[in-house]
Design brief:
By secondary structure, this protein is α/β, with parallel strands linked by helices. It has two domains: about 200 residues, Spore Coat Polysaccharide Biosynthesis Protein SpsA, Chain A, CATH 3.90.550.10; about 90 residues, no CATH class. Helix content is about 45%, strand content about 20%. Strands 1, 2, 3, 4, 5, 6, 7, 8 and 9 form a nine-stranded mixed sheet that branches. It is globular, with a radius of gyration of 19 Å.
Length: about 300
């Protein structure tokens, strides 16, 4: 099966080489790479064209549209039966495609994800994140994003076409954040998912780079949109306890985004809101420790995951 690898990029030429190299080193060879340049001005186009690699196709937006729209553009240009995603500053391990593609032998599976090594560059800290759920997980996904971010995910094209009426709605541009989570919810409504438990990529968190994606207000707005979009299913499928757990997870997620960029007051506020819901030791300790800043908080967060 041909895998189309979609890489959106914007002014990150210095990181893009590592990302591209990690795809070109794959032990699974049947792939194409589609780079969608979001109107960079750092000579990314010169670099990509200099590679002169027939596996790479390059498209440049006429103006900046942000990563979700760039992913949609990449999907619209893709030819593969499977669609994979990689951010321009992350790296796949050499056997990622080979291990994940095998799981699509099950025709009921529409999405495969994997474990991730999360690397906090500012603190030189790495934590593995392991998948937990497979099969029909729609109800679980309404409570929490168990699949995670795009770089670990491969999707069957049939699954995308099944849940998206228009090309520009794969990753919904109406969402200011969490477009990936929204797409995973739609896919899991009708398709099974599977995973490789081991980490198959390294995902980088850099304070300066991640400020836009970690904008707390964007995540708050996105959660409000998601509440409205899935209101019917939330009310019909989730118990009162499930709804509380869902809100608890939202508060923890927002707090985590804040702590990544060292917004201590915001992080403390949302850890406290989480504690009010469950009165658990985890959120209480994280609320207290968040006062002291990012490094200790990040260590503790992954101890309690």
């Amino acid at each position: 099966m041909l895998v189309s690898v979609i890489i959106p990029t914007y002014n990150r030429q210095k990181y893009l080489k590592k990302s591209l190299d990690s795809v070109l080193r794959q032990t699974y060879y049947n792939y194409e790479i589609i780079i969608v340049d979001d109107n960079s001005d750092d000579k990314t186009d010169d670099y990509v064209r200099s590679l002169n690699n027939p596996k790479i196709r390059y498209f440049k937006n006429n103006f900046t549209m942000l990563a979700p729209t760039s992913r949609n553009i990449g999907i619209s240009h893709s030819k593969g039966e499977l669609i994979a995603f990689l951010d321009d500053d992350d790296e796949w391990y050499h056997d990622k495609l080979e291990k994940q593609v095998k799981l699509f032998k099950n025709s009921n599976v529409g999405l495969v994800y994997s474990g991730v090594d999360l690397f906090f560059e500012d603190f030189n800290l790495t934590y593995p994140s392991s998948p937990k759920l497979k099969g029909h997980i729609y109800k679980n996904m309404l409570i929490k994003n168990y699949i995670g971010a795009t770089p670990s995910v491969i999707i069957k094209r049939d699954a995308l076409n099944n849940v998206c009426k228009k090309e520009n709605e794969y990753f919904d541009p109406k969402f200011p954040a969490r477009q990936d989570y929204d797409l995973w919810i739609r896919i899991t409504e009708t398709w099974e998912v599977d995973f490789i438990s081991e980490p198959l990529l390294k995902q980088y968190y850099r304070n300066s780079i991640n400020r836009i994606s970690s904008n707390v207000n964007n995540h708050i707005k996105a959660h409000a949109l998601m509440d409205n979009k899935y209101k019917l299913f939330i009310n019909s499928l989730l118990s009162f306890s499930d709804k509380n757990t869902r809100l608890y997870n939202q508060y923890l997620f927002i707090a985590a985004q804040a702590i990544k960029i060292n917004e201590k007051k915001i992080a403390t506020k949302y850890y406290l809101e989480a504690f009010k819901i469950k009165r658990d030791l985890k959120s209480l300790i994280m609320c207290i420790i968040s006062i002291f800043g990012s490094k200790l908080m990040i260590k503790l967060r992954y101890y309690f995951k």
